[in-house]
């Protein structure tokens, strides 16, 4: 049984508050995200993918339409969300462990429990580091780690407080293809185990096809959803699925939708 977790209903957003179509960054977007699912959003640069993430986290309010989470309208920043971006946002002056513990320090939800029971939270952070292959790096500083390791740590920080929604905006975009594939598998395994909902923005169609249950393709600005693809490949998915005809066919088809979106602009 699938439950709607997030719903966007006819959502349009302009950054200047205007309701004119030419000012809209995204226009009349409708989408539903089920609890525990993995959704990818793909589309040309500037089409409003990051804007959509800001709407979902409550950092931006829609100009028109509604955003619902757990059947309640989102009217401000939402708690219970973890985020990671293309550029590592780890703090250079904190070691990896202290970076990962940051959500507990800044969130009012943990104000008392974190101070009272820090050892429990440290244990949790170390377990997560172990899971993503960073055991032993907790005392290192971000600049002592490779780009891929920094992104692993960023994802640990986004997940350490067990958010119900993980928002990833091009998290692997700056990595070499080998490291990227390793991180795809890491994310696949973490989600299979912890069952959080993921929303991934990516330029990489293979990444979307490998990881997602649902792929939304957006048009050029103002961004609209022009295609929804349900990915039915069985899980767990092996990385070698990329060489299977059904996979390459899907990627090719998605490429066609993006091309059509660009040509229609
Ligand atoms: N803070 C802002 N103020 C004004 N306009 C903005 C702001 N942020 C984004 N925009 C505009 O909104 C549109 C969508 O931007 P957005 O960052 O959502 O695109 P994107 O799909 O994430 O692009 P990319 O793939 O390059 O990251 C763009 O035309 C951009 O210039
Ligand atoms: Mg973006």
Question: Can you lay out the helices and strands and say which pair or pack?
Answer:
Elements: E1 4-14, E2 24-34, E3 38-42, H1 49-56, E4 64-69, E5 72-73, E6 81-85, H2 96-100, H3 102-106, H4 111-116, H5 118-131, H6 147-159, E7 165-169, H7 177-194, E8 197-201, H8 205-211, E9 214-218, E10 225-230, H9 245-264
Parallel strand pairs: 3-8, 3-9, 6-7, 7-8
Antiparallel strand pairs: 1-2, 1-4, 4-5, 9-10
Helix pairs in contact: 8-9
This protein binds adenosine-5'-triphosphate and magnesium ion.
Q: What features would you describe in this structure?
A:
By secondary structure, the chain is of the alpha/beta class. It contains 9 helices and 10 strands. The strands form 2 sheets. Strands 6-7-8-3-9-10 form a 6-stranded mixed beta sheet, sandwiched between helices. Strands 2-1-4-5 form a 4-stranded antiparallel beta sheet, with helices on one face. Strand 4 and strand 5 form a beta hairpin. Helix 8 packs across helix 9. The protein is globular, with a radius of gyration of 19 Å. 35% of the residues are buried. The model has no long low-confidence stretch (mean pLDDT 94).
